[in-house]
Amino acid sequence: MVQAVDTLSLMDEWGPEKVVCVSDRRTGMRGVLVIDNTARGTGKGGTRMSPDLSVLEVARLARTMTWKWAATDLFHGGAKAGILGDPTRADKEEVLRAFARALANEVPHEYVFGLDMGLGEQDAAIFVDELRDRGAAVGLPRALGGLPYDELGITGFGVAEATDAAAAAIGLPLQGARVALQGFGAVGQAAAVRYVELGAVVVAVSTAVGAVVDRDGLDVKRLVALGGEFGDACICEYGQVLPADAALSADADILVPAAREDLIDEQVASATTARLVVEGANLPTTAQARQVLFERGVVVVPDFIANAGGIVAAAHSMDARYSPFVVEPAAVFSMVSTKMRTNAAFVVTQSLERGIPAHTAARLIGEGRVREAMRLRGQLRGDR
């Protein structure tokens, strides 16, 4: 079940503004929407589906979206939605339709569905079809005029661009740098391809099945091809499979967690050889691990800076939801590159110059922008 949590304990000066738990007896659907902070615009964040979903998980991710939108200076608010269940279940479409109906009061005026773990472009199309509203979701298939983020690899591309800029800021040339990737889904694969294009050497890759490690460099092109055919089992097809956590302990200059939350703990943080950790996933490092990394002099590029390429694309899609014109991918990639590089370099430089963790430097940027928006909103309402 969606794990119970005291929603009052989640609240602070930033939010959340609304937590909506929904269910449907006929399909067994259970899900949650968390609208964290809309001071800067309509709530926007991905929609995920997993068998161990919790309200707290969705709330944490909604808060990350608040900072992500603010840090990239794009005018939407933080929100996230999730459905409890196996995304491979046979009746998935019925569950998605029930979820959409249950949130018809909030979508699309307060929240717009997006793509996250367990959902793809066809699922976004189901949301739109069920609510009979073209603006109900972004991430639609090309045939429906959408901008398919995963297919284009926009988020992973942005992670690599942020890595390049952050590495330069700490005096680590990406050319020849050894990169270990934990997670090889849409984000990890696209990032790996871009790393190779930028001259880096991908020495380790892991999935839920296992890991492959080669100090001389993996054949990324082959791995990506195998990933398209075998999914997580691409590791087995590549050969010489190691335990999945081998990627986290691989001898590398740069470590990129690009899978689930809280996978880099104090033990990993204490042992890694990396000089730079780039959070390709949302919330991949624990607070304790970040402190250990900071004390060791390892720079961490925060998730809401590093993997914000997807929301840059989402911002374009949000603007084009009711437009007869499709979004031009080239313009999106160009903006992603500029945003990711500028933000990553600025945050890392601020961290080094002020002697504070990069997460703190990035939060200060986001908090300042959200606080100003909240102040202006309060003035408009006549609050004092």
Polypeptide structure, described:
Helices cover 43% and strands 15% of the residues. It is α/β, with parallel strands linked by helices. The chain is globular and about 55 Å long.
How many strand units? 12
In CATH, the homologous superfamily of the largest domain goes by the name NAD(P)-binding Rossmann-like Domain
Largest sheet: 6 strands, mixed
Strand content: 5-15%
What value does the average pLDDT take?
92
CATH architecture of the largest domain: 3-Layer(aba) Sandwich
Distance between the first and last residues' Cα? 42 Å
The CATH topology of the largest domain corresponds to: Rossmann fold
In helices, the fraction of residues equals 40-55%
Order of helices and strands: EEEEHEHEHHHEHEEHHEHEHEHHHH
> If you compute it from the alpha carbons, what radius of gyration comes out, rounded to the nearest whole angstrom?
20 Å
Q: According to CATH, what is the class of the largest domain? A: Alpha Beta
Count of spatially separate domains: 2
What would you say about this model in short?
This protein has 384 residues and is an alpha/beta fold. The protein is built from 14 helices and 12 strands.
Secondary structure: elements and pairs:
Layout: E1 18-24, E2 29-37, E3 43-44, E4 47-50, H1 55-71, E5 77-84, H2 92-102, E6 111-112, H3 121-131, H4 149-152, H5 154-169, E7 178-182, H6 186-197, E8 201-206, E9 211-213, H7 220-230, H8 234-238, E10 254-257, H9 266-271, E11 276-278, H10 287-295, E12 299-301, H11 303-306, H12 309-319, H13 329-354, H14 358-380
Parallel strand pairs: 3-5, 3-6, 4-5, 7-8, 7-10, 10-11, 11-12
Antiparallel strand pairs: 1-2, 2-5, 8-9
Helix pairs in contact: 1-14, 2-3, 5-6, 5-12, 5-13, 6-7, 12-13, 13-14
